[in-house]
Design brief:
Number of domains of chain B: 1
Oligomer: heterodimer
Number of strands of chain A: 0
Number of strands of chain B: 2
CATH topology of chain B: MetI-like fold
Distance between the termini of chain B: 56 Å
Shape of chain B: flat
Helix content of chain A: over 70%
Order of helices and strands of chain B: HHEEHHHHHHHHHH
Helix content of chain B: over 70%
CATH architecture of chain B: Orthogonal Bundle
Largest sheet of chain B: 2 strands, antiparallel
Radius of gyration of chain A: 26 Å
Strand content of chain B: under 5%
Chain lengths: 295, 326
């Protein structure tokens, strides 16, 4: 048996880590912090500019008044606010029920079947289809026949929302304990009744939160609306006939050389971001409550 | 004993279940139907341009669109290479900027930040994703582009002696350029790459990380030995999804890229991109011109579908491997 010299026992304090290794560690740690700060710079800048340049323009007149000519100064985005609400609302009415039923198929019926896997995969792929392609698609199958309208824009937005609603809803349905379904079936309920009165209510907060996030994303979209709704300056609260939206107004005003138009673009951007953030925050609060309840 | 429950009565509700099942199935199949319809209807609409231009549609850089129904010479040319080039260059710049930052943020949130700060940090990054693309475009054209011009001039002076880079960071910078489009795209795809890589990093088994630390590794060594090798496939998928997003992004790019279809090495020059030119010119096009723009849409659809499919397969394989190990 060899005798280990106690005088040469290893020193386990951190200072023994070779200088090069500790420097590399410190550099990597610093780089991670810097990466986070770098990403915060544009966020702070954009929100700052929105508050400074958009907040200045916002007033009740701005939110309700008519849109003046690009050359004119002064407020007015009312028709765009109405258009955004009507078009996004109609898209939600089409996409959310369809998406929820699609998710019911995936989680309650299809499960591990080949068709369900294909639909699941293609829904994921569909979330990556560029939004302008959805605009071109609705243009070819709808606008060429029936002309530009709020409904055409809503169809394009619904195509964008559908896969998001399907996938988030399916995730939520999967979290519903199987025991609930077994209990319902054991009491004699049919599958449709089990799904509609037991499974869906259990998953409802999560579904609502996912749907709201999809609506928030759709409300900010511009590209699908460019060729589908046209661009008007008059208020149009119906789904038929050309319409306008906040995003479309920002796009057309942003490249104008007139100060009044640029101001209105910032005001519309402020309004749109406020709307999107509100939807996002409420959705997250609903989701957080759901998460704490299910734990 | 009273009337006993008759359990033999005919099953009257069965057809309701069948109807419900079919309804759900139809809703699910809608996804496939929409994707199929997109492919068929846009290709059908773009066919005249494909027939006129043939293979030159994607390889020629001569873009001389003319509405054959309108005035002007009938020698229209529909080469879209300049748009493909602009899309590739801007997306490459975006990836070069966004990938290191995103991986850094994902590591920061999963390995470095205190546990109670993780959720707020994640929410902050997700806010970047919630900002609509047209707002990025407005900020880009009104704030970033005018200020970037001077900075680009400085970059050009610094890099003038460096061969290679002095061609990319060339003279006469323009605020609305390939570079500005790349920077805006980088900001826009950072949240998606970050959130996907973060998901991947959280699947690294606790035991592997603890083992590395127990062997005396520093945090960075633990990340290199345990976290990164385990996450490589998932990270590749995340980066590809970011690439797909960048290539399809329309409105922000349309506002800041400068709308000038040219193939130049100088990144500070205006260019144009596939989705951007559709957004800018579709409204005033007609005939074969419109078909050509539709054809760009078809190409964009095909490219993004391929990228997304391979990326999803990579991410899924990473997930499956993790589940298999658990």
């Amino acid at each position: 048996m060899t005798v280990v010299s106690l005088a040469r026992a290893p020193d386990l304090t951190t200072s023994t880590v070779a200088r090069r290794r500790s420097v590399a560690n410190a550099a990597a740690t610093a780089a991670m912090c810097v990466a986070f700060l770098v990403a915060m710079v544009p966020l702070v800048l954009i929100i700052g500019y929105l508050l400074a340049r958009g907040g200045r323009v916002i007033s009740w007149d701005f939110l309700s008044g008519n849109i003046p000519l690009p050359t004119a100064k002064g407020p007015g985005m009312g028709p765009a606010v109405v258009g955004t609400l009507v078009i996004t609302g109609a898209a939600a009415v089409m996409a959310i029920p369809l998406g929820v039923f699609g998710a019911i198929y995936l989680n309650e019926f299809g499960r591990r079947s080949r068709l369900a896997s294909v639909i699941r995969f293609m829904a994921d792929v569909m979330t990556g289809v560029p939004s302008i392609v959805m605009g071109l698609f609705i243009y070819t199958i709808w606008v060429l026949r029936y002309g530009q309208s709020g409904l055409a824009g809503a169809l394009a937005l619904a195509c964008l929302m559908l896969p998001v609603v399907i996938r988030t809803t399916e995730e939520m349905l999967r979290l519903v304990p199987t025991e609930l379904r077994h209990g319902s079936v054991a009491l004699g309920a049919r599958t449709w009744r089990t799904v509609l009165t037991v499974v869906l209510p259990a998953a409802l907060p999560g579904i609502v939160s996912g749907a709201m996030l999809a609506v928030a994303r759709a409300a900010g979209e511009t590209a699908p609306l460019l060729f589908t709704i046209g661009i008007v300056r008059e208020r149009n609260a119906s789904l038929s006939g050309p319409n306008t939206a906040l995003s479309a107004q920002i796009f057309s005003n942003a490249s104008q050389p007139f100060a009044g138009a640029i101001d209105r673009a910032w005001g519309a951007a402020f309004t749109l971001v406020l709307l999107v953030f509100l939807l996002t925050v409420v959705a997250r609060m609903v989701a957080a409550r759901f998460a704490s309840e299910s734990n | 004993m009273a009337d006993h429950l008759d359990l033999t009565q005919e099953d009257r509700g069965a057809h309701l279940d069948t109807a419900f099942r079919l309804l759900a199935l139809a809703a699910g199949v809608t996804v496939l139907a929409i994707l199929g319809l997109i492919a068929w209807s846009t290709t059908h609409e773009a066919w005249p341009a494909f027939r006129v231009a043939g293979l030159h549609f994607l390889t020629s850089k001569h873009w001389v669109p003319n509405d054959p129904d309108g005035p002007g010479p009938a020698t229209a040319q529909y080469g879209t290479f300049a748009f493909v080039y602009g899309t590739l260059v801007a997306s490459t710049i975006a990836l070069l900027l966004a990938v290191p930052v995103s991986i850094g943020i994902a590591l920061f949130t999963t390995e470095l930040a205190p546990r109670r700060l993780r959720r707020p940090i994640t929410n902050l990054i997700d806010l970047l994703a919630a900002i609509p693309s047209v707002v990025y475009g407005l900020w880009g054209i009104a704030v970033l582009a005018p200020q970037a011009q001077g900075f680009y001039g400085d970059l050009h002076r610094w890099f003038r002696p460096v061969p290679g880079l002095n061609r990319l960071f060339g003279p006469d910078p323009n605020g609305r350029s390939l570079m500005t489009a790349g920077v805006i795209l980088a900001i826009m795809i950072t949240p998606i790459i970050t959130s996907l890589t973060r998901e991947v990093f959280t699947t690294v088994p606790r035991g592997e990380k603890d083992a590395a630390l127990a062997l005396g590794a520093t945090r960075w060594e633990m990340i290199r030995a345990a976290v990164l090798p385990h996450s490589f496939g998932g990270m590749t998928g995340a980066v590809m999804l970011g690439l797909g997003r960048a290539m399809g992004e329309t409105i922000a790019v349309a506002l800041v890229i400068g709308s000038s279809p040219q193939v130049v090495a100088n990144l500070f020059k205006p260019g144009d991109a596939m989705p951007a030119v559709i957004a800018n010119q579709f409204g005033e096009s007609g005939g074969t011109f419109r078909a050509a723009l539709m054809g760009l849409g078809v190409a964009l659809f095909a490219i993004t579908i391929i990228i997304n499919m391979s990326a999803r397969l990579l991410v899924r394989r990473a997930e499956v491997r993790v589940r298999g190990a658990a």
